[in-house]
Amino acid sequence: MSRLKTLQTLFKRYRRPGDIVFAWLFLAISVFLLSQIASQTTYRPGNALFAQPRFWPAVSLIGMTGFAALHLLGSALSERIDGRWKEVLLWVSVLEFAAWFIVYAFVVPYLGYLPATILLAVLLVARAGYRSGLIYASAAGAAVAIVLLFKTFLQVKLPAGEIYQSLPDGLRQIMLTYF
Amino acid sequence: MEDILAGAAMLARWDVLLALLIGSVGGVIIGAIPGVGPAVAIAILLPATFSLEPIVGLTMLLGIYGSSMYGGAIPAVLINTPGTAVNALTAYDGYPMTQNGQAHRAVSLAYSASFWGGIFGVVCLILLSPVLAIIAPMFGSREIFLAALLGIVLVILAHRGQIFAAGMLAMLGIFLQTIGLDAVTYTQRYTFEMTFLSSGINLIVVVLGLFALSQAFFLLSAPDDSPDANPVTGRLTSGFRELLKHKRVATVASGFGVLLGMIPGTGEFTAQFMSYTYAQKTSKDPDAFGKGSPEGLIASEAANNAVPPAAMIPLLALGIPGEALTAMMLSVFYVHNVIPGPQLFQNNIDLVYGLYFALIVLNVVVICFLMFSTNLLTRVIRIPTRFLGVMILILSFVGVYSLRNSLTDCMIAAGFGVLGLILKRLNLPIVPIILGMVLGGIMEVKLRSALPRLKTPLDMIDRPIAFIIFVMIVLVLAFHIRTLIKEYRAHQPEEDHNLHDTQTR
Lengths: 179, 505
Prior knowledge:
Chain A is mainly α.
């Protein structure tokens, strides 16, 4: 970080690689959404303009498209920054972690919150590249602590795992209620 | 007086005090870990607080909000990495002090300046409340609409150098809140005939995706890091004595914090820069700034800690959040059917006083906690970043899924998580989306309810407060254009920096 200059300099934000790709994407989505305004919103004859159900979607989408076009123009006129596609590849690669999250959410009602959380913590820590036993133990410990805090102590609304049904009577009730 | 006592009584309950203790101690720890900020923590805890009483849930979140900046100063000073975004300038002078072997002095000064700012902010809030109780009822639909509009304008203009991006993201926020069934006309808006979109896009799901999940993705996709900080030796109370030598800087900086905290869309970041610039301009030794000046450190820390109490003013008095954290807190009010705004000061003033007292207690708790736990916190800083990413991902699930046990919500949150990651990687701001969603909703409702009383558009500004806010909007825009012209003429060389990278935590 360079030395402090002026308030203006510090308030400025700067472009990063991949900016123009995002600018194009955002503009394309804005234009698409704006093009759908007639079919996706209703116009009520007789109602005042500001009370139309179409009014705020129109204002926001026109604003979005306008700003997105200006942002793209700004990006296009700026000096090219290397590493554009490498950056885009990174965005795509993050979809893997999004998938981990969705699979975790899918599995919880079947496996139960406690087993699913411990499993995810250990597997994801391995995926993140850690190989030390201490880290695995810490991950499992932290997973148990999270379950204890939210499900056991705060009684946050999370479904009980279907797998718990096959447990013996006494244990089943405890697992269904607290884990 | 009765209301003040009722407010104090509200706090004298074990569950409220426990929530405050957990919130403030947790906030310091969260603030101290680079990579997790109060926004991530509040987003995750938000749904868990819905089942608690409003005062309990709010004090916990307030605890995190008010104390995270104390903790954020530790890595800023010791390893040159701000724990929270708003400790950015603390690193500017704090780290050079550490390099000069004055880590103890820097940390202790940061704590005392934070305490000064925090208490100053609460005192201002208490002194202002009688005035607010008189002014707040003068805010009708028109005034609240204009104040929300001012907030949107300010949040866009505050992102200098990327105003177009901030504009498009704020507009995206406004658009997102229009999706679903329109509550007045019962017509579908942008649902594309998908049932899950009929009920709209939940703010909490978006918040969790943009702040928490995106941070998990960010940490998991970046190289692993485990920052190391050396322990601090010596008594940490010594900073108070030195602070008294710089009372003027601390007080003016806190004043900036209060003033800018009250204005929606500006907040800690602006307050910090304004007070830092003021301190540098009025200092006897301006060249020391950026090289380990105690005045710079005090200006930065006092200003950012004075903001949270002040940011509660527009939230409580008008129901308008000025930044992402208060926007999240707004949902706690809504869930409990306590609608912040002019009526709150008339009907629930005890709750308002209760929150003020909570802020005082939190500052005392935090400063006491820090006096003996600083070295423990230097160890917390060392948690490997990818491991932290795994934990944030697991915690985000509780937040999203506990809302209504919906897999669709998780998918939407994951989508926003990816969007948030892209924005973080591109150094683009996330806050305009959240403020766009919240303020957009307020603008739509308030404009609709103001309509029957408007015969011409000029009626919108025919009341004194509405007119003042309108003039403020015009002045803000005019001032911005003037600055742009001045900058264009001055041809300042561009300097890249990563200050804003941390602003989204």
